[in-house]
Amino acid sequence: MIKNIGILLINLFIASLLLFSVTACHHRQDPQQIRLGTISGPETELMQIAKQVALRNSGLRINIIEFSDYSLPNIALNEGSLDANMFQHQRFLENEIHNRGYHLVAIAKLFVYPMGIYSHKIQQLKELKSHAIVAIPNDPSNEARALLLMSKAGLITLNTGKGSLITPRDIVQNPKQLVIKELDAAQLARALADVDLAVINTNYAVLAHLYTQQNALFAEDKNSSYANLLVVNTKDQNNPKFINLIKAIHSKEVLAAAERLFHGEAIPSWK
């Protein structure tokens, strides 16, 4: 009886070692596969085209993992659940690294998606009344981006001494005494019924059929510095498999799909 128990324990120990070995192998990076994090919406559809191009041209398999919250793709990438993500611009990435200590780095520029100021209540900014409510993104980098756009539109004046860390507290002149309402970026388009203006990222605006060239009262120009980035863990930045991913995203097929999906709102920053 004791002998049988001993044999059983040995077998269990061997099985656990095998399981650990298989699990460890599973977590090693596959040289021909990339787990790519995106934000749900047209950009994810765009990556479906890049996925086809990468497989056809280099045999690279892309597993697209969608998120609905801006904070999650960097958490997943830093923890190793993703190999790369593409949803953020440089200022957003810098803010995340500064605040959370992530070991992440951008390895390629992708598309610029201009931010716009939209309204369902007025046709021109000069119609805006005193004490109007303006909704802006609540994440630090896009909040600063929205405030800078409002300043450029002549709605407010900012103390820009803090650089990219501008908040509503840095408004030094607010002639119409606008009320700033900070919301999650994904909620801004839906909030248009309840506010006078909303400053919206293009990836969310197009989901509501809002386009800077057709619907925005004011928008960033095509020379915006807010290009989206392909971001990886710093330890993986020299991995050659990302070269084929970049080639696929920069391909003519993806450019054509971007024009169709974003109605001219996606501007290739690498050209």
From TrEMBL:
Annotated lipid attachment (S-diacylglycerol cysteine): C25
Gene3D superfamilies: Periplasmic binding protein-like II
PROSITE patterns: PROKAR_LIPOPROTEIN (PS51257)
Main location: membrane
CDD domains: PBP2_lipoprotein_IlpA_like
Pfam families assigned: Lipoprotein_9
Topological relation to the membrane, as annotated: Lipid-anchor
Locations listed in the record: Membrane
Record's keyword terms, sorted: Lipoprotein, Membrane, Palmitate, Signal
GO cellular component terms, A-Z: membrane
NCBIfam families reported in the protein's UniProt record: MetQ/NlpA family lipoprotein (TIGR00363)
Similarity comment: family membership: Belongs to the nlpA lipoprotein family.
Protein name, UniProt field: Lipoprotein
Species for this entry: Candidatus Aquirickettsiella gammari
Organism phylogeny: Bacteria, Pseudomonadati, Pseudomonadota, Gammaproteobacteria, Legionellales
